[in-house]
Structures are given as structure tokens and as C-alpha cells.
Amino acid sequence: MDVVNTTSQGSEGRTSKSDLTDTAIRNAKPGDKPRKLADKKGLFLLIHPNGSKYWRLKYRYGGKEKMLALGVYPDVGLREARDRRDEARKLLANGVDPGIVKKQSKQSIRESIENSFEAIAREWFAKYSTGWSSEHSEKTIRRLERDIFPWIGGRPIAEITAPELLTVVQRIENRGALETAHRALGSCGKVFRYAISTQRAVRDPSADLRGALPPFKSKHHASITDPKAIGELLRAIQGYKGSFVTRCALQLAPLLFIRPGELRRAEWCDFDLDACEWRIPALKMKMKAVHIVPLSKQSIYILKELHSFTGHGRYLFPSVRTPDRSLSENTVNAALRRLGYEKDQMTGHGFRSMASTILNEQGWNFDAIERQLAHSERNTVRAAYNYAEYLPERRKMMQHWADYLESLQIGASIIPKLLT
Question: Which one is catalytic: 85, 200, 265, 352?
């Protein structure tokens, strides 16, 4: 390897080694072999045959000669290269190997990137979103990408403080999206707790922000809970003039009071009409736990009538256009509109509120009602095993509920709950 030293004539006529100049570096041409342009104190510019130029520092540590890369010219100019050389020499003067320091710095930067909030959030999302609905997955990641990552995504997750996180969610609140702010904060809390479980953080700063955002009152689905009005609704459903399959969906909605999506996607393979039971697999449920729906005599009657129409296929309520798909999500709501009920009066989801309100008023066990509604269970392991919890009481409650609705439909007096 050729070594070239620049020289100059001193005031006393001596020829001495000179510092490199920007002009000399710019004009330096590559050769057939790598060549060096030497500066002072171990610094030199290594010029490769392809014309690339690299700053290097030759030094000795622990009795061994070593080399330290200081950057690439022209990204790192002559002055900056000398500054980096001087910093390295200060470390050497203090007994520290600058090569080790640089290696540790690179490792620290790499760990910082790998342990950034965004990196861990995406890892958390990839692990848990497989069990979510596509709609929930899309909303969650979009919320993080739009409202969280631009502000703290690059920060090491272990260094993010509660005030820093609060500033981020308050930006969302200040644009009038309070519900989004609450949901974003909740997602952040899950990411922090995932980081703790994987030993990349020690605490969840979102826990310090309880009460920091104004409370948000979720909009409840429109529902009818007045007994007389319920009777009118049931009679209207009975007289529905549209598709027979849609009418059956309307009739079963108040009797079963499950989520509209779970009803319209119901499959015959999950029903045991002899056992009077609909057992919905965990993968088909919002909360990803098996759910048992006891079937009343009234429900069984409707299902048997429906089976003669759609029992040969997969779905109870197949799409008219494509039998391999279920009814669209708007079918029940559209049918209610056809019956004269506006969206601020009644929705398909409102049958759940109807049942919950009245069954609680009638004194049924709150926990049995919540279990039948398949509301979220805080302990997911417990939820996986407790799908049959309160089942005898739920069977009795579901038959009572069907009898109660039938009495309202025919205009009879309200049936009190049997306390025996």
C-alpha cells in the first residue's frame, strides 16, 4: 500500500511533513492499489482503486496496533475527521480503547432502535392481532401509526415518561377526538405491559395517567325498553313482509340477544336442536371464548322452520347473492328501518340493551346476565374455562325471557320473574 506524505518548505528552508489540505484530498486520484494520504497523529485518508475515500486512525492500545474507522469522505470532511481523531486520542490518554467505545456505542444505538416504542408496539400487534377481527386490527394499528408513532415511536420504550405520553394523547384530545385518545392510551398501556413481560421495560407510565383525560361516555346503541313499545315492535316483526330468512333473523335477535355479527354469521354445525343449545366456538366470538346460548322453545320453533329453508347450507342466514356468505351486516338494521324504526329508535345491537335492562330490573343474577351477554372477562384464562358458568340459571332465564317477550307480543300482562 502506497503512503503519500504532503510536504511544504518551512521558513528556515527545512522540508517538513505537512497537514493534509482539502485541496489535496479533492485532487487525490486513485491508483491500482489502495493508497494512503497521511495527516498527523495517526490520521490518514485511505483511497481505494474505485475512488472511495475512508478516514482511518492508526493507534496502539495494550501493546497492539489497531485501526479505527472515522467516516467516509466527503460526508466527513477534514476538520471533522481531525476532531474525531482528537476525541479518540483523549480516550487513549485516559486508558480507554476508542475502538471498544465505538463498538459499544453502535450496540447501544442498535438496541435503542430494536427497543423503540414503535418496534415493540409492532411486535405486540403482530403477536396478538391474529386473534382479533380485521376491523379491530385495522383500527388499532392505524391509530398507533397516526397518533402515537410520529411522536414517541422512535423513543426507547424504557425511557418514555408519563408526562411525555400525556402530551401525546392530549394532542388527540385537543382535536376533539376524546374517545380516540382514551383508546390510544389503552393501546399504549398494553404495549408497555408487553415490554415489561419481555424484559425491555420496568414499568407502565400509562398507569400514572388514570383520570388525566376527561371521562368519555360511549354512545349506547338505540334500544326500546318500554314493555308496551317492545310488544309493538315484536308484532311489527311478526308481520314483516320481506324475506322469510330476514324475518327469522329479526325474530331470533330479541330471543337470543347476541351480537348482530354473531347472529348473521351463525352456522348450522354449531346448533344442537335436540339439546336446545347453540355452542359458538371461541374463534367466532368477539371475546375469543366459547359461548353457550340456551335455546328456548320459541327459538327452537323458529330454527326448525328456518332449517327447512337454509338447513342444507352452511349459514342460517345466507346471502341472497352468494350462499357461501352470510347476510350483510346492514340487513337487520335495514329491515328495522323498513318497519318504520329509525336508527335513533332501535338497532340490531339494541336487542342486547333491551334484554340487559329488563332482566336486571326483574332481579335476575347480574353475573348470569353478563355471562349470557358474553361481555368481556378480565381474566382471559378464566374466560376460556367459565363459558358454562351459571348455565342452569341461564337456561331458566332464557326461557323466562322468551315467555316474557311472547306475552308482550300478544298483549298480555307482564310476567314477573319466578323467584323459585
Answer: 352
